[in-house]
């Protein structure tokens, strides 16, 4: 899209890759955001600026920093990042940012929006804002989505940092250089809030060039490329002397990476799109084209800086941003899943659960009966931090093919109201009673059926020599009467 809309110069035409970058997939796990009304835009730069502090990091940067503070201009979406050692340095950084931004734009900073972090709330910071006539708006506690511009940008930055470090197997100490590089790149990428321009052009009025951008962590003679300098040169890290140098005339080998164990360069083991060799996957199609919804979908406010498209609408011009922000890829069919050991293990676990519960037994399909198809559904389970905890495969019956009066009768299954659960919890708490919570694994597999239902054997697990249909004597996920049978 950057290329097709001529938003930057120096960007070559990119062919659409056939695979997703594994480093991006592993580094960008996150929780889904929630909806919020879109707030109105400002009229000029520095009218509203968002700020947030990210850290502490696991290790110190090469300069001994543990945090970084970001500033996002609401009008231009321009982003600035500053590395700091302690949170009490935020005021000094803010003064530096304010002076630079006002001189560069000929506008005065009017409103600063932050969370209620102590680094923004102590006396000196408040006094400085009052003296400069800056309105300091503090986001209410537990509502980080209202500071979405800074919150979302920090998450995007950290996603990119993890990808850059993982892609070239760089030490974590280089996270600071990766943060500054991510900021530099993001200011030259498209955003939803701007109409056909990048944040850099919206702020400065000049269309940026990206012809000089190289793969972060690549070999540059005896140094490692770790960023860009405002003079047009490159920031290079010397792994031997552990220092940063600035150079303009640099020959970068993007296919090499530094061997941090032996202090020498080696061939990159990063997954490159044009190096992947895989068997073509058959596309599963139905008899009819599925119906597409015409309902207008409102995008959450925290995703204002993201371009969200459907998978089948990615253009051949290479909207690679779509791929770069993908989380763990979930297979869409058995043919894709069978190529990955993690999903094979998940499918074996599901089959073992079914057989352990005596959910089915092989039997000949009786005359006049019709077997219902099944399909595999794959889901990546994550914890509250967005880290992958489990690869789960579930075998589902295509319940939409069932016919009432033949394959099922009653489907109603009573459930407990939340009001009832809250009442019981309150009574237990009032009386000091102990409460126990449990989860039944593969619950629906334990429900007996009143009807005879036949399903085909699952893909990849057909019993050789017994290709007859699978007769079920307990409920399976996907059946219309499964909830009632379990209840």
From TrEMBL:
Task: Print the keywords alphabetically.
Answer: DNA integration, DNA recombination, DNA-directed DNA polymerase, Endonuclease, Hydrolase, Magnesium, Metal-binding, Multifunctional enzyme, Nuclease, Nucleotidyltransferase, RNA-directed DNA polymerase, Transferase
- InterPro entries, per database record: DNA/RNA_pol_sf (IPR043502), Integrase_cat-core (IPR001584), Retrotran_Ty1/copia-like (IPR039537), RNaseH-like_sf (IPR012337), RNaseH_sf (IPR036397), RVT_2 (IPR013103), SH3_retrovirus (IPR057670)
What is a GO molecular function of this protein?
nucleic acid binding
PROSITE patterns noted in UniProt? INTEGRASE
Is Transferase included in the keywords of this UniProt record?
yes
- Report the residue ranges that make up the Integrase catalytic domain in this protein: 38-207
One Gene Ontology BP term is:
DNA recombination
Protein name per Swiss-Prot or TrEMBL: Copia-type polyprotein
Q: Which organism is it from?
A: Trifolium medium
